Automatic annotation (TrEMBL):
Protein name: TNFR-Cys domain-containing protein
Cleavable signal peptide: 1-19
Record keywords, A-Z: Disulfide bond, Membrane, Signal, Transmembrane, Transmembrane helix
UniProt cross-references to PROSITE patterns, sorted A to Z: TNFR_NGFR_1 (PS00652), TNFR_NGFR_2 (PS50050)
Ranges for domain TNFR-Cys: 86-127
TNFR-Cys repeat segments: 86-127
A Pfam family of this chain: TNFR_c6
Amino acid sequence: MRVLMSTFMFVTLVKFTGNKSFCQKGTYMEVQTNGQFTCNPCPKGTFNDENEHDKTSCKPCLEVSNSNPNYKVKLECTPEHNADIECVQGFYRVWHFPNDPCRICKNCSLLGYFVDKPCTANNNTVCCPEKGKECATSTKPPPRKTPKHNLRVQCNGKVLKANLDTIRDSNGCLQGEFYVCDAHNGSVFCSSCPRGTFMNHCLHFEKSCMQCTPRPENSDILQNCTRVNDGQYQDRKKDSNICIYIIIVLACLIACLIACLIAVICFMCCKYKMCCKYKARKEKPKDECDVTLMNILPM
């Protein structure tokens, strides 16, 4: 029975074409030392969407973070196909590459335009600069005679025309991005901040990201530097400095108390000597001075 099942699985996973054999999608080819091979299912977290292939490994699935509020999972990853994401309402994707982010839809009202085509998960909003119901409901693009349809920007001394349908030049770049103008190729676009930099401004035209604040020595990390926020740190010496200040203040108070006590003792001693001299002049016995001192000094 096991032999029949193994033969059945081998026939379903392997297809012979001439003198060469191929594996089907959802599997990878494992070559044995004796020259034979088997088609094994892709492990969890990997996939292979090619038919009739001789790939010896599967591709890693697209990592989808549940913490990103700009998109949702459209298709889970299986051994036969990769995962796919879909932008939430108000965002869209341009190229649909695995790392292509969801961009915010263009707001026509901020430009004083009217919506010609609403924003979808795959296309940005198309704005129309002319007023009227025909413009707002028309499926045709805005007339070419209107120069506002294409945004012209200054880029390294050159005036470039940016396509509003694919680039967010009307609203600017998002957090974690910076504005790039390539005068050589005649294009403008938004690019992600490189490692060690951040941009916390939204809808901006900054041409570079800001450098992350270096972590000071003897400090604790309150927040790591990311593409959208700077790092925050706390000096470890602050608590110890407070203790040192308290110790210094207490030492000063104790020193003042000791100095006052010494001054009182000195004052009493001086008063005792004066009393003895005065008594001696009147030829009083010495023990009477002792009695007087006992009356002066507190018990």
